[in-house]
Amino acid sequence: MGEKRKTYSKELKEQAVELLNTSGKPGNPIEAELGIGNGVAYRWRRQMQEAACRFYYRITRTWSSCLERRQPSALHNSGRN
Hints:
The protein is mainly alpha-helical and 81 residues long.
């Protein structure tokens, strides 16, 4: 049987993304400092960006100002957490 997956608080996720966005450090040192796995902070940042974009679309019904790098079809199919 596999190990149970760790769960992290919303606050830790927000802290990791904030550090990733503002510290100028790459993800690995931030993730090591916070005790999370490699690539996790980047995944959380992507998920937060996608959630913000979906919210923006629900309000405006347009993708024009949403994430430039993301295609609407990719956002609709990103039901993973």
